[in-house]
Amino acid sequence: MKDWFYDETSQVGVDYGDKAEADVYDERMERFRNYAQEARTFVEKLNFPDLSRITAIDIGCGTGAFAVHAAKYLKQVHAVDVSGEMLRIARSKAEGMGVSNIHFHQAGYLDFTAPKPVEVINTKWALHHLPDYWKQAALLRMNQMLKPGGVLLITDWVFLFDPDFERAMDEVVTEMSRNFSQDFVREAKGHLREEFSTFDWVLRGMIERAGFEIEHADLEVPLAAEYVCRKV
Ligand SMILES: C[S@@+](CC[C@H](N)C(=O)[O-])C[C@H]1O[C@@H](n2cnc3c(N)ncnc32)[C@H](O)[C@@H]1O
């Protein structure tokens, strides 16, 4: 590997490579997320006539929030994550649920290569782990792994432009404190300090430059965004 290449195996912010972090992930998330419902909503959104012919890749799959549940509807899922600890939990969940059409890969945005082009890529709460230059590289690589007309769904934290940046972020943190646990807010502050979320307008520019059309974007919760993108 070139000596200027980004080392994506080294985690930023929360260390998802750590067993203790991986072990508490689902308990923390499932206080406000319903993984099965998220996967159902996602496959409905895809609007493909025959889901049983679809192969999906989930990059930054974590403990299998999407991969394990979506596999029930799809032909095959490639679940990709740099963390062996997160994959360990995802694997054991799939086994426990009798889901066998998932292939697990310990790899990342910058080195995973799909065996064949696929119809769908999902990446949720993970792209912000890469700095912007490498987000663009990741988006270009994801475009190459999709069939023509394939769909990329990105869910992530993004920023909106506000010249009064300190007040704007104080408001976001206050709003979070009203709606989420202290644990969550502490983690969100760490995210702001240490991780690489970018602006909505920057991410849109990167998505388009990587060869996608953004069919739909949602920015309902403060900072959380979802982009449904189609390979053009
Ligand atoms: C906040 S978790 C999200 C997990 C899952 N997508 C979900 O919705 O719950 C972020 C995940 O991204 C993974 N990750 C971080 N950098 C990555 C990279 N460069 N390539 C692939 N996965 C990465 C972490 O190991 C972690 O499992």
Question: Which helices and strands occur, and which strands form pairs?
Answer:
Elements: H1 19-29, H2 35-46, E1 55-59, H3 67-70, E2 76-81, H4 84-96, E3 102-106, E4 118-124, H5 132-145, E5 146-159, H6 165-179, H7 182-194, E6 198-199, H8 200-209, E7 212-218, E8 224-231
Parallel strand pairs: 1-2, 1-4, 2-3, 4-5, 5-6
Antiparallel strand pairs: 5-8, 7-8
Residues 8, 16, 29, 59-62, 65, 81-83, 86, 108-109, 124-126, 129-130 line the site of S-adenosylmethionine.
Quick tags:
232 residues, binds S-adenosylmethionine, single chain, 8-stranded mixed β-sheet, alpha/beta, Rossmann fold
Question: How would you describe the overall organization of this protein?
Answer:
This protein has 232 residues and is an alpha/beta fold. It has a single domain (19-231), classed as Vaccinia Virus protein VP39 (Rossmann fold). It has helices at residues 19-29, 35-46, 67-70, 84-96, 132-145, 165-179, 182-194, 200-209, and strands at residues 55-59, 76-81, 102-106, 118-124, 146-159, 198-199, 212-218, 224-231. It is globular, with a radius of gyration of 17 Å. Bound molecules: S-adenosylmethionine. S-adenosylmethionine (SAM) binds at residues 8, 16, 29, 59-62, 65, 81-83, 86, 108-109, 124-126, 129-130.
